Structures are given as structure tokens and as C-alpha cells.
Amino acid sequence: MTGIAAFGTGGWILSEPFMQNAFIAGTAVALLAGLVGHFVVLRGQVFAGDALSHVAYTGALAALAAGLDLRLGLFTATIGIGFALGLFGGRGASDDVVIGTTFAWILGLGVFFLSIYTTRSSTSDSTANVKVLFGSILGISSAAAQSETWTAAGLILVLLAIARPLLFASLDPAGASARGIPVRFLGPFFLALLGATAATASQLVGALLVFGLLAAPPAAARKLTDRPWTAFWLSGALAVAAVWAGLALAYWVPTLPSSFTITGAASLEYATAATASWILARRARIPASPDSSNPETRQGARATAGSRHR
Predict the structure, then answer these.
(1) Distances (CA, A) of 27 to 99, 231, 264, 286
(2) Residue 189 belongs to what H/E stretch?
(3) What angle do CA 129, 203, 217 make, to 5 degrees?
(4) Helix-strand-coil percent breakdown of the chain, rounded to 5?
(5) pTM for the whole structure
(6) How would you describe this protein's topology in the membrane (predicted)?
(7) pLDDT digits 0-9 by tens, 211-257
């Protein structure tokens, strides 16, 4: 079906089984990424999210090189490295030096495992490397969509269970520690949860592009509101909207890759929110100018100037 013909029958976009699978899994994973991403932006751990998305790539290739299930490598690597980053970062939060060093080492391992996999298994699945890098949300099976949905739902429940103390620890670590909240444990645990989120989302939008869902919608929500809980739910809604818009655009224009349209929609959300926030802030800084056409206003202005002169 051409793009124009598909646009004319856009109301039946969900009649296609592959689109049903993409929307079901995409919605669940996007909601997860948006909610987790809110805390990533709030805690200033955007660099950690980027690093863990690349860890997902290395973990997947390690599993493929060893002849194991790709998901085993994804979750083991991202959860383990995420928890380690939190532990060695100190104070329950990750440190940029630790993340940067780990990031470089992990990327080197990824090149090593890619070399092993392409040497031993290039004839069995030559597109596996591309799928890991850029995802395959439109090629996901019904069973895989259900697995992704249940995994995302479970991770969302875990996040909701720790959301309130995590928010307290993110805004006021000293106060949270004084109130008995285990701040030093929450930091590594949250990064492990972030790693599991990166592993789940990587299977749909790819290891290189998952960062777009983890950062852009939460950052857009923070531009639109300074209320933490409003931004939390708005972040999830914006991530879901980005996936829906990206899937619809990829369906109507088949030449556009779905990962590109999804991350493009997320980036557009952030650009729009940042522009709106800048315009509102600029208007708030400009004082209201007196109406020069009003005689009473002009007379009041002259009286004020005269009193200042005296």
C-alpha cells in the first residue's frame, strides 16, 4: 500500500496486525520510558541514561556472540552496570567520571563482541546487529508484544512503589536521609531500574535511539510545569504521544523508518515546549507599558516625572 493510499484509509491503521502489535508494545514501553525519564531528568542523570542505552547494545551482542537469547544479555548487562554505577558513583547518585570511564570501556567491549559475532554467526542472522542498534517495532510478533507489555507493566509498578521516596530523595537528599529514607540504596536501585527500562525499550526503538524516549518527553514536561507530580504524568503522556505519532507517520509514509519518526516526534515535543517556555518567560519579564493614548495615563506619567525632578 502506498503512502497516499494508506493516508486515505488512516482510520483503519489498527486493522493491520503488525500495527496492533506495535501500538500495544509501543504504548506500554513509552509510558515506562516517560515515567522513568522524569526522574532521570529530575536527578540530573541524563548522561547515565545515555550510557546505559549503549550498554544495552553491548549486552545484546555479547549474548548473540555466546549463542544465547538476546534479551538475557540486554537485561543482565544494563541492570548490573546500572546498579554498579550507582554504587561507585557515591552519595546514591552516579558520577560523570565513573560513567564516562564505564561508557568507553563498554563501547570497546561492544566492538569486541560484534567482531566475534560477525565472524562466527554472520550467516545465521546478518540483520541482528541492525535490529539491536535501531530496533524493529514494526516487525515485532504478537508474543513479543505481549512479553514487552507485561515487562513494561511490571517495571512501572516497581517505579510507582518507590516513586514517593525517590522524589523526596531526588529533591532533598539530606532531608530524606534524616527522615529514614534509604537514599544510598535508592540511587543504585533506580539506576538498575533505568537499565531494565533501557533494555526493554531497546528492543523496539534500538539501543542508539532509546535515549530519545528517556530524555526528550521528560525534558519537555519539565519545561511546561514545575510541579513534580504533574510533570511525572505529563512526561509519560508525551512519550506515549511521541510513539503514537511516530508509528502513524511511519505507516502513512513507509519510506520513513519508525525509529526515526518516533525519536523525531519526541524531539519536536521538546523543541515546542522549550519555545513555548521561552516565550512565556520573556513575556513575564517585560513590564506592561503605559497606554500613551490614554490622557489620564499621560497626565499621571508627567506628574510622576515632575515629582522625581523636584
Answers:
(1) 30, 18, 17, 41
(2) helix 183-205
(3) 120
(4) 85, 0, 15
(5) 0.80
(6) Multi-pass membrane protein
(7) 788 889 999 999 999 899 999 999 999 999 999 999 999 898 888 88
